Amino acid sequence: MSLRALIVDDSAIYRKIVREVLKDVSAITELFTAPDGEAGLKVLQRQKLDVVFLDVEMPKMDGIQLLKEIRKSYKDVDVVMISSTSQLGIDKTINALEIGAVAFIRKPEGTSFEHSIKILQDELKPVISTLINRFSARTARKVTSHIPPKPKAPVAKTPGGPSGVRKTMRPSRAPRGGFWATAIGVSTGGPEALGKLLPKLPSNYPLPIFIVQHMPKSFTALFAKHLNDKCALEVVEARAGDIPRAGVVYIAPGEKHLIVKMENGKPTIRTNNGPPENSVKPAVDVLFRSLAELDEKRPVLTAILTGMGYDGEKGVASLKASNQCYCVSQSEDTCVVYGMPRAVDDAGLSDESLKLEDIADRLVFLANRTGVRV
To answer: Which residues are catalytic?
Structure first.
């Protein structure tokens, strides 16, 4: 494993802190720095790079402008944003994630240089795992691209969806209709994926939608606003006590678990500060498990999208055990990281695997089957 990295930040102290942390990452073998976007672009033109750690707010050419250049001309270069925790920094970071940045790290605000390094080390651990995973996947694709593909057997067209749907498990016993809610789990690559999927859903989508996106608490409210501005559906950060309504998208608040409970005969949104599950909070498994435990057995239409790890696998299994779930997973070739979808695919829990661009139409088709409603 050999990653060549570039740090672009107008702050000399932050360049030094990030460099100090990255130089101890064994997978990173060469490390370059640049003080602004224009200088960073020149390094990209001279060097073959694998990843850029990119500050959001800079003079001359800011992080968003450089990211757009990278996405246009250097498609195999992954970008990790370095975000301040100011509202402007968060807003631009979310924009960057929607454009195609793989992940972000928050600028450390430690009490000393050493403390800041420790904070950044903890922030970088999952990000480095993501980068290694993506580098390995790209390398494998380059190797297999030289091998002639096996002939594919014809696949019948699925109603309400594209041809080429890949069945990944025995036929589901869960109903293909009568769903009362849609629940989506997503992580790395999620802002970009949701930014493409949700705007395709019509304003008359007949179900409430619950989404767990792994994201810090200071980011989720602005993320919901970003989505709301581009969607026909109303998108909000979920609040304790909300009664789910059809056509509303509820984003789990950062660093709190989102659950749904029956109260006074109605499904009601609640949050809690329970411990992380699968090393994340909010966790998809927590939400899905709560949906499986509702007093009234209400079928749920689920989707597992791009993300590292396996959060969501146990939750889908809980819903399946109660005959309460139909699961769509995102196909490997359209994932930023094929981790969470792979977990449900390999466990035989996915009813069908679809390209990201086909999932919205399929959800609309399944959601409009007659049956239970909120």
So the answer is: 187, 214, 311
